[in-house]
Amino acid sequence: MSDTPQLTRRPEWTALEDHRAQFQQHLRELFAEDPSRAERYTVRVGDLRIDYSKHLITDETLALLQELATATDVSGLRDAMFRGERINVTENRAVLHTALRAPRDAVIEVDGENVVPKVHEVLDRMAGFADRVRSGEWTGHTGRRIRNVVNIGIGGSDLGPAMAYEALRAYTDRELTVRFVSNVDGADLHEATRDLDPAETLFIVASKTFTTIETITNATSARDWLVAGLGGDDKAVARHFVALSTNAEKVAAFGIDTANMFEFWDWVGGRYSYDSAIGLSLMIAIGPDRFREMLDGFRIVDDHFRNAPAEANAPLLLGLLGVWYGNFFDAQTHAVLPYSHYLSKFTAYLQQLDMESNGKSVQRDGEPVEWQTGPVVWGTPGTNGQHAYYQLLHQGTKLIPADLIGFANPVAELSGELKAQHDLLMANLFAQGQALAFGKTADEVRAEGVPEEQVPHRTFHGNHPTTTILATELTPSVLGQLIALYEHKVFVQGAIWNIDSFDQWGVELGKVLAKRVEPALTEGADVPGLDPSTAALVAAYRTLRK
Ligand code: F6P
């Protein structure tokens, strides 16, 4: 065990506990005492305006949280990350997704080698390839132009590009059909390909390791579908399959020419990888220029995180607020509620980013943690949620901090009545933030003439904390800004909790067991070591299986 005091025994932590114990004020009181808090508790970064005034905080809370960040040396770990130090201790790797959006002339070294030229070399190759596919210059095996792009990957090799494709649909080439296959359930590939012509279809096999069983299984089935559809000629694969990976050997072993491989590196974590080669499907859809605009957006927030003073540092503030609720109010979950149809996959993407990063229960040195770590992240687009689970947010018994994300303008493509609907959409966002914070008192309900027996049911306690992120418009740059904001927020929390936010050993056991169980299902093999419940389930499956 190291000499550093345990997190919960630090004076900065116990000061926060004392502060929490005395914290009684309702948001109604906090705003009444200081109407300027809306302005004082708003931070701007790039095109994002982040209002955190509707949180259960005072200047004292913020000061104490900042002291915790200082004591836990968040900025020291941040600088080590940007310098390329091996802060992913359990895998002994650097953590350099920020190098993926560094400018061409930047110098970022890993083991004495500047990685920036490699990043731009791959980006340039991706751009060349994307342009050829988009222009029709890159043709399929039979000479037909590519009209369909199917990305096959899972986790970080799927969620990022799939989310961003959805987010930036208005910027995509509408002539191209772009789909994402991740699930090893054959239904996923079936539905993605059933109406496609193999002669016009490009498969992008995205896998950092190129060993992930779901992806390799789907890629193998896709190859069979393609070859069968093109008269059984194996040579077709070269024009219809490209790979995105760190593992050239495995790519070659799968049968994809490494000339058709776009590389990235072990210092890019899977869930931090969609601005690497993993974004190729997105780049084909939106074009290289838009992709670069997105990278510029990421960089705006990277620079801000690195340089902005602590009290105006957006990812630091958001990270600290999460610690405040998770560790001092025992909040278990965090809702992310975008008021944008285009962000329908945004929260699913954040689930991996946050929960795979900070779902840990041991510290960096292997000692168990004695405090809460990452929250359950959940949510769907806001207006739909309002008619589903917001009841619990407003009148349930749980404290659920939420992020409300909206845009001042709809995407430029919307016009007429559809454009005008945007005000109604945003009115809902503002109304929800207000209702959650301030609620409706029993006296206000009575004043409306509500019968006394109904008053408790119609009263809203309020005091539910939200952050409102208002951006100008959902552009590629703004999407990059939003993602980088959350990446660094997650980083801040991992730093404070003293966990390794960049490994994911927790997903290994299930993978190993699935491999072990599979022969019992397919061949009825006697698999030793199955517990009685699982053994009975496997037996039932075998009986019911047609
Ligand atoms: O199983 C978890 C995981 O390792 C993720 O971290 C990763 O994003 C995903 O699997 C896919 O991995 P790969 O890109 O190597 O196929």
Automatic annotation (TrEMBL):
It is found in: Cytoplasm. The keyword Cytoplasm applies. It catalyses: alpha-D-glucose 6-phosphate = beta-D-fructose 6-phosphate. Keywords: Cytoplasm, Gluconeogenesis, Glycolysis, Isomerase. One of its GO terms (cellular component) is cytosol. One of its GO terms (molecular function) is carbohydrate derivative binding. Pfam families: PGI. PROSITE patterns: P_GLUCOSE_ISOMERASE_2 (PS00174), P_GLUCOSE_ISOMERASE_3 (PS51463). Gene3D superfamilies: 1.10.1390.10, Glucose-6-phosphate isomerase like protein, domain 1 (3.40.50.10490). Pathway: Carbohydrate degradation; glycolysis; D-glyceraldehyde 3-phosphate and glycerone phosphate from D-glucose: step 2/4; Carbohydrate biosynthesis; gluconeogenesis. Its main location: cytoplasm. The active site is at E356 (proton donor), H387, K511. GO terms for biological process: gluconeogenesis; glucose 6-phosphate metabolic process; glycolytic process. The keyword Isomerase applies. CDD domains: SIS_PGI_1, SIS_PGI_2. Its EC number is 5.3.1.9. NCBIfam families: PRK00179.1. Belongs to the GPI family. Catalyzes the reversible isomerization of glucose-6-phosphate to fructose-6-phosphate. HAMAP family: G6P_isomerase. This is Glucose-6-phosphate isomerase. It comes from Streptomyces naganishii JCM 4654.
